[in-house]
Specification:
The protein is α/β, with parallel strands linked by helices. It folds into 3 domains: about 5-185, Aconitase, domain 3 (2-Layer Sandwich), CATH 3.30.499; about 190-295, no CATH class; about 310-420, Aconitase, domain 3 (2-Layer Sandwich). The chain has helices at about 5-10, 15-30, 60-70, 95-105, 105-115, 150-155, 170-175, 205-220, 230, 240-255, 265-270, 290-295, 320-340, 355-360, 365-370, 380-385, 385-390, 400-405, 410-420, and strands at about 40, 45-50, 80, 180, 195-200, 225, 260, 275-285, 310-320, 345-350, 375, 395, 410. A 5-stranded parallel β-sheet has the order 11-10-9-12-13. The protein has a 4-stranded parallel β-sheet with strand order 7-6-5-8. Helix 18 links the parallel strand 12 and strand 13. Helix 8 crosses helix 12 (about 290-295), helix 13 (about 320-340) packs across helix 15 and helix 13 (about 320-340) crosses helix 19. The longest helix has 18 residues, at about 320-340. The N and C termini lie far apart (about 55 Å). The structure holds FE3-S4 cluster. FE3-S4 cluster binds next to strand 9 and helix 16. FE3-S4 cluster (F3S) binds near residues 127, 249, 317 and 318.
């Protein structure tokens, strides 16, 4: 890797031993992936993935202390992934004990460290940091040091920023150094497509199911997708961005996609079109039957596959304001049709604290409350990641949550039927 004179000096210790180690980490990371140089991060804010004060990650607290003591702070303020606990989310006595005393007992301490390192503000905890209400929305072409897979794929694909699928901790190293290794999705070459995906469904595909199908097929390659503009239009309006947020998160978690292009819609596809596709790209055709096949292939992890769901999580990744409003309408309509006034399964909609604040200012908030749906800033995965929660029959429309936990995937319509009591509980 070619380093500038200044970078070589920092590596040699000109800014202290701790900063030299931060640079060494980034150089080794870059070397492993064939990077040619370190390039400056250009976004106004950064975003870090390790948001949870898990008791067992002592080395992380030690690392943070070393950085803080050496004054090796983040070069930019940053947002964080969501908090792991929220007392608004239903949990029994034992679960609460596990969350507070055993799993996330270091949360307050860790948040104190994050504030010292450069946290944007106390409420900047969400995986959807790019929402207008949150304010960490990179510009096209910005170089980032993010690791949250759902945010990386959104930033690359919908915003046209440039970010690799980094890991937790590596994101902090980039944030402190203010530079990242130049390889993969940071380069023009790495942003070219090796897969052509043709959408030939008879109705608008479920975002999280389509993303899952594509992720499992192309894995970490870049797909160029035809036929989605038919369903989403040619403008990145709120509805299209919300769809792509959920779609992208599924491609990134069911596979390892870091960037996709949607013909006629996403910024690079609009500017460069099919010239982004590499010669010899493979083709994947998705029709109704293929989506059915993919959905039927999901393993059911519940002990009793026919159990009545005990909890429903929506909002992984966190919901947009547009989504909270449209789901309020949908829940009300489904309840009216089922002849019920409140949801029949405890249901939690998750969103960024700043988005929830805006939502509270609308009359939708009161209407949603009347249906019994709870809103929260939690990360559902952090709730599910323990043996007690894992035993619960939880349903979700998130294919990321399904992949990482025992939660069962339901399409949006199935969720509505289940929580309203319209379709019984399948
Ligand atoms: Fe966000 Fe947690 Fe899901 S970080 S994408 S809500 S797993």
């Amino acid at each position: 890797m070619q380093l500038t004179k200044e970078q070589q000096e920092i590596l040699g210790g000109s800014q202290g031993e701790v900063m030299a180690k931060v640079y060494k980490t980034l150089v080794m990371y870059g070397d492993a992936f064939g990077a040619d140089k370190l390039v400056p991060i250009t976004s106004k804010y950064n975003h870090l993935v390790t948001s949870f004060g898990l008791k067992m990650i002592g080395p992380v607290y030690e690392l943070m202390n070393k950085l803080i003591e050496a004054g090796a702070l983040s070069t930019q303020k940053f947002s964080m992934d969501p908090r792991p606990i929220d007392s608004k989310v239903p949990a029994n006595f034992l679960q609460n004990l596990i969350f507070k005393k055993f799993m996330y007992s270091k949360q307050d301490f860790y948040e104190g460290q994050l504030e010292q390192l450069g946290l944007m503000d106390k409420d900047a905890f969400t995986c959807a940091c790019y929402m207008d209400e949150v304010g960490n929305k990179p510009a096209r072409g910005d170089i980032l040091s993010w690791a949250e897979s759902s945010a990386v794929v959104y930033a690359n694909s919908v915003l046209g920023a440039r970010c690799n699928r980094n890991s937790g901790i590596i994101d902090i190293m980039g944030s402190v150094a203010g530079v990242v290794p130049n390889f993969g999705l940071l380069t023009d070459e790495g942003r070219r497509a090796d897969w052509i995906v043709k959408i030939e469904t008879t109705k608008k595909p479920e975002a999280q199911l389509l993303g899952s199908a594509i992720g499992m097929k192309v894995m970490d390659a870049v797909p160029y997708i035809y036929g989605l503009d038919k369903w989403l239009g040619e403008e990145l309006d709120d509805a299209a961005c919300t769809y792509l947020k959920d779609f992208g998160a599924a491609t990134a978690s069911n596979g390892a996609v870091g960037l996709y292009h949607v013909d006629g819609l996403t910024p690079e596809a609009k500017d460069f079109g099919t010239s982004l596709i590499n010669e010899g790209a493979e083709v994947y055709v998705i029709d109704d039957a293929e989506l059915e096949r993919v959905k039927a292939s999901y393993p059911v992890m519940w002990k009793n596959p026919d159990a009545k769901p005990k909890l429903c999580f929506m909002g992984c990744p966190h919901m947009s304001l547009e989504q909270l409003k449209s789901w309020t309408d949908r829940v009300e309509a489904a309840l009216a049709e089922a002849g019920n006034s409140k949801v029949q399964i405890p249901t939690v909609f998750t969103a960024a604290p700043a988005v929830l604040r805006e939502f509270e200012k609308t009359d939708y908030a009161e209407r949603l409350k009347r249906t019994g749906v709870i809103t929260s800033y939690i990360c559902p995965l952090m709730y599910m990641n323990n043996p007690l929660s894992a035993k619960m029959p939880v349903i979700t429309s998130s294919n990321k949550l399904r992949t990482y936990t025992t939660a069962k995937y339901y399409t949006d319509d199935e969720i509505l039927a289940a929580i309203s009591g319209k379709g019984g509980n399948k």
